[in-house]
Automatic annotation (TrEMBL):
GO CC list: cytosol
GO terms, molecular function: aminopeptidase activity; metallopeptidase activity
Source species: Pseudofulvimonas gallinarii
Name under which the protein is recorded: Zinc-dependent peptidase
InterPro entries the UniProt entry points to: MetalloPept_cat_dom_sf, MtfA_fam, MtfA_N
UniProt xrefs under PANTHER family: MTFA PEPTIDASE (PTHR30164), PROTEIN MTFA (PTHR30164:SF2)
Length: 258
């Protein structure tokens, strides 16, 4: 009995065939620094064991879908470690974007405003990660265009680990936290100013919505177009590289196979 329990607690084995097929579809993995692919494979196996990945509204996911989602979710924590994915256990996948109803309370007037949004993804504090399969596939089809939905939503999860969704994930010490806050505050202020002025930006203008979205959008850009982020926001790029512990090594932009 104890032997059976031990086997049940071990991560599932990802077959070579399934792993190599998934890697062929996720071209970001070709750009990982040497030695990290094995770590990512081990993390992905743990993710498949620990997280329930289910389709919503009759969407049927197969093992290949689940594996790709697991790999994409683990990519940002390849150096940080699996413990950074703690505190939640479910991934809900919609076929496409999904509608959510929002309400806002104005403290000054007491007026409650309601509206509906269409989202490609959402991360709940200590709740599920919610993703649009169509948007994930679109990101994989254009891997260097600066969009990575799963990295975006996982960045929100990392941000929430200290209990606040404010664009500041848990950091190792006070000096690092102070540097992070100074750099991100300055970069966020300048980015918002550029968006308000109608300027073209390296990152999705949605990053101007709030500091937490700025961190999430900067993270997805870091994992899909690090060269553009480094050119447009070198201080921000350096801070994210130090936090995540690695970056994808892209070819020259002109030579990227899209």
């Amino acid at each position: 009995m104890l032997g059976w329990l031990k086997r049940r607690s071990e991560p599932p084995v990802i077959s070579d065939e399934a792993w190599f097929d998934a890697c062929a579809d996720i071209r970001w993995l070709d750009r990982l620094p040497p030695g990290l692919l094995d770590s990512l494979r081990a993390l992905s196996a743990r993710f498949l064991r620990d997280k329930c990945i289910t389709g919503s509204h009759d969407l049927e996911l197969d093992d290949d879908d689940r594996l790709r989602i697991a790999i994409l979710a683990c990519l940002p924590v390849t150096r940080l470690g699996y413990d950074w994915l703690r505190g939640w256990s479910q991934v809900i996948v919609y076929q496409g974007q999904f509608r959510v109803r929002r309400s806002w309370h104005d403290d000054d007037t007491g007026v409650v405003t309601e509206d509906e949004d269409w989202l490609a993804g959402e991360a709940w504090h200590q709740g599920p990660l919610i993703l649009s399969l169509e948007d994930i596939l679109a990101d994989l089809d254009a891997p260097y265009d600066g969009f990575n939905l799963v990295a975006h939503e996982v960045a929100h999860k990392l941000d929430m680990l200290d209990g606040a969704c404010d664009g500041v994930p848990p950091l190792p010490d006070r000096a690092t936290a102070l540097r992070w806050q100074a750099i991100f505050s300055d970069e966020y202020r300048r980015f918002c100013k550029a968006v308000d002025a109608g300027e073209e930006t390296v990152m999705d203008p949605y990053a101007a919505e709030a500091p937490d979205e700025f961190f999430a959008v900067a993270s997805e850009t870091f994992f899909s177009a690090p060269d553009l982020l480094a050119a447009g926001h070198p201080a921000l790029h350096a801070e994210l590289r130090a936090f995540y512990g690695f970056e994808l090594v892209l070819p020259e932009r002109e030579g990227v196979d899209r």
